[in-house]
Amino acid sequence: MAEAFPLAWPAGWPRTRRRQRARFDTTIAKARDELSAEIVRLGGRYPVLSSNLELRLNGLPRSSQREPDDPGVAVYFERGGKQMVFACDRWDRAQDNIRAITKTIEAIRGIERWGASELMERAFSAFSALPPPRSPWDILGVPRGSSAEAVKAAFRAKAAAAHPDTGGSTAAMAELNAARDAALREISS
């Protein structure tokens, strides 16, 4: 299952390049609570709202905080024994992305209420969650909090096998590059 913080964006889901201002009138707390209620109505269990929002001690996003640089959100939950994920980063505020996911789940639930439950199951098959992305530390094979030098050395060692010119693949090299960059960003912050 994904972690609530930082954002665990679903693997293979494209990101929005130009975000827009939404017309939802909501707060983080209200959007979060409405999403939880909608997941329960759907029959979902064990929801994890993953975002770059700072968390309270109980693990839920705090209401009063600065908007994160990346307002994307993803919600992971179990439904009918299957892992599901919904993600949204179209809007420029995290609460609006949470609200958009809530409205999407509400609309899909309407399919069931209107008597076309087979269509709902087909629609949900597209939202089956892939395994959460591995941490940059796991990809590089170094413990979290390692020095920048250790990260760079691990990157060089793994790049020799991952590079397409040496029998690796562009996907493997891209994952390794992203892991190095994320680890170095975390070290410098």
What's the layout of helices and strands?
Elements: H1 28-42, E1 44-51, E2 73-79, E3 82-88, H2 94-113, H3 117-125, H4 136-140, H5 148-162, H6 170-188
Antiparallel strand pairs: 1-2, 2-3
List keywords for this structure.
2 domains; Helix Hairpins; 189 residues; alpha+beta
Report on this model:
This protein is of the alpha+beta class and 189 residues long. The protein folds into two domains: 28-125, no CATH class; 136-188, Helix Hairpins. 44% of the residues lie in helices and 12% in strands. It is built from six helices and three strands; from the N terminus they run H-E-E-E-H-H-H-H-H. It has a three-stranded antiparallel beta sheet. A hairpin with a 2-residue loop joins strand 2 and strand 3 (82-88). Helix 1 packs parallel to helix 2 (94-113) and helix 2 packs antiparallel against helix 3 (117-125). The mean pLDDT is 87.
Q: What's the overall average pLDDT, rounded?
A: 87
Domain module count: 2
Return residue spans where pLDDT drops below 50 for at least 5 consecutive residues: none
Strand order of the largest sheet: 1-2-3
State the separation between the terminal residues, measured CA to CA: 26 Å
Number of strand segments: 3
Question: In brief, what are we looking at here?
Answer:
The protein has 189 residues and is of the alpha+beta class.
